[in-house]
Amino acid sequence: MVATVNEILEEWGKDAAVDESRVPEELLKIPKMHSKYVRYRAENSLLAKKRMTDYEKMRAVKWDYYSGVMPKEELDDRGWKPYLYTAKAKDSLERCCAKDQDLNNILLLKAVNDEAVEICTSILRELNARTYQLRAWCDYQRFLLGH
Q1: What is the largest CA-CA distance in the chain?
Q2: pLDDT at residue 85 in the model
Q3: CA separation, residue 27 to residues 31, 90, 119 (Å)
Q4: Rounded distance between C-alpha atoms, residue 123 and residue 28, angstroms
Q5: CA–CA separation, 20 vs 26, rounded Å?
Q6: Which of 108, 109, 110, 117 has the least C-beta neighbours within 10 A?
Q7: Side-chain half-sphere of 131: how many Cα atoms within 13 Å?
Q8: pLDDT at 146
């Protein structure tokens, strides 16, 4: 199952904390966390692509529906009633699709996956910086001890 935005944020809330008394262990945890967030990003990216494909397929179906060319058998299979106002002009069909709830629901789900990808990308940047930050902290501690 793909991690949701809330699950990713919850995980990062735990992973973001650094125990200064255990810096060597914190450094060793970075690759494991990196792997986790790369996986989350990949899963959400693939799901966003699938949702875009689902949107395009449904948009083609809705285009037929709103233009009045959908066969009665398909209408019956989908449990839909014929569209009362057949739209013929391209801009009318575009408007019908733009306000269609089924299509907008798919786009909303895709937006959630896109947001998860952005969050994971941000976390991965932070993890890349964490190595340098922890090493700088170690150097500072050595400086304080006079080494």
Answers
A1: 84
A2: 85
A3: 8, 57, 22
A4: 17
A5: 8
A6: 108
A7: 11
A8: 78
Token readout for 14 is 């735990």
Distance, CA of 87 to CA of 118 (rounded, Å): 38
Q: Which residues are CB-contacts of 44 (< 8 A; sequence separation ≥ 6)?
A: 2, 3, 113, 114, 116, 117, 120
Give me the residues of the chain with pLDDT under 70, please. Answer: 147
Measure CA of the first residue to CA of the last residue in the chain; give whole Å: 49
- Cβ-defined contacts of 12-20 (< 8 Å, 24+): 12/37, 12/119, 12/123, 16/126, 18/130, 18/134, 20/137
pTM: 0.84
- What is the structure's pLDDT at 19? 86
CA distance 61 to 74: 10
Instruction: Please state, in angstroms and rounded to a whole number, the distance separating the CA atoms of residues 91 and 64.
Output: 14
